Here is the input.
Amino acid sequence: MSQLHETVEPNVVDEEMLRQAVEEQGPQGQAGRIAKEEGIQFEDVRHLRLDFRNILKIDHLWQFNTLTKLQLDNNIIEKIEGLDCLTNLVWLDLSFNHIEVIEGLDALVKLEDLSLSDNSISLIENMDTLVNLHVFSIGNNQLSQLDNVIYLRKFKNLRSLNLSGNPVSKDPCYKEFIAAYLPDLAYLDFRRLDKETREKALAKYHYALEERIHNETLALKAIQAKKKEEEELQQHKAAFVELLNGPQLFDSMYAEDTEADKLAYLPGVSQLVDTYKSQMMALCVQLFELGLEQQRTRDEDVNCFFECTCEAVQDNQQVAADMISDFERARRDVMAEMQRTTDTQTLMAQFTRSSEETRQLRDTLMSLELTLSDQLEDVIKDFERNLSDMVAVFIEAAQGIFAQCRDLENQHNEKLLEISMAVLEKAAKNELEEDTPDEVRMLCVDKDTVINAVGASHDTHLVKIDNREDELVTRINSWLTTLIKSIHEDEVARNRKRISEIHNYIDYVMDQLEDMNPS
Here is the structure.
């Protein structure tokens, strides 16, 4: 870094630099002076030039959240950073800097035009989120691997690419390779790719492209399958029955069962466990399907509630808006008439009448809001009661199925204990088969050892079942409490805001009217 900056004084983007840049690029003359006096709002700036300022570090751009075009070329920037808040950026120029790594662009999902020319970049990477990229200029860098260009195949909207001046551009296959692997590209190094070049490129790389497309198709299918799986898991979590549509609960019971492997050597236990697993899975699937069905019912109820309350609020606001509109038309006529009136008594009568009409409007608007608030309060209470009943029904049904799971575990435990005792009796009489595993012989040392092993296994299974039941009940109750609380809080906030709006409007009208008070 020291050699790069020996002849220049490095700068960091700060508030003063930004304000100066905005003023320079804003209106000039009288308009500029007025804008400066009123204060320049960074959040209103759309285009910003910060070129030729010896900038070393990008910073303080968080206020420019509506910025669409940013020029940072011809500086001494070494690292792409500080751009995360510029989510509306469409055009970005970072050319003629000292950047070595492409990074820090993840948030710029709307970016269409990106220039990184004349830097020291050796690898095209870390651009996956730039799905809208149309123009990419990275000429005069250190790109040397032709295969690295294949990375750009993911940008289906890319139409113009500049790689001139990179070592890779000297490759004899350069133009044909890019034409083949980027079939949607229209311009390469500022020249249109002609039909002849494309045909020649496709013929040359036909087989390699087929393999590439095949692999990309497989990868895409894998990504889509994973995405679908994740979406389904989120849906199942929303129903509070995730990982209950198969053997997951059963497997978790045995995953922490340290005695299971030993007991599995007992004759007949393997078949017993298989039967137990299928029966447990059937109960879990029953619970899973119940959860999804209940979720659909809850969602319908919740959506209906929000649609109805939103419609009621909108209707109420429209009635109020119509009242205010009629009042405003009449008020403008009255104010104009009062301005023309010279007789004090007449003016006083007009003032008194207008004041009374304003107070009547206030009372009407307040009454309208009070009626709506009372109605919404009743609707919320009904919704809370209905939703609570639905949740209670689901919990009761779920607990019933979990009780069946425990009964099944108890039955399994009894059968396992019977088998263990039978084997223990044979061991005591030295009637075990010669090929009996050592694990069985060690287990059958005495009665306490067998009973403890079976009991420990049983306890582990019951804890897993109990924990899953507790988790379901706790989470759905928490969901219900949070939802109802947020609905109440939102309604209180809406009511306060509406009352404040009415008071502010009435105060505004009364202030204007007071200016006409003849007394």
Q: What stands out?
A: Residues 28-35 have pLDDT under 50 and may be disordered. Residues 240 and 475 are 7 Å apart (CA to CA). The radius of gyration is 37 Å.
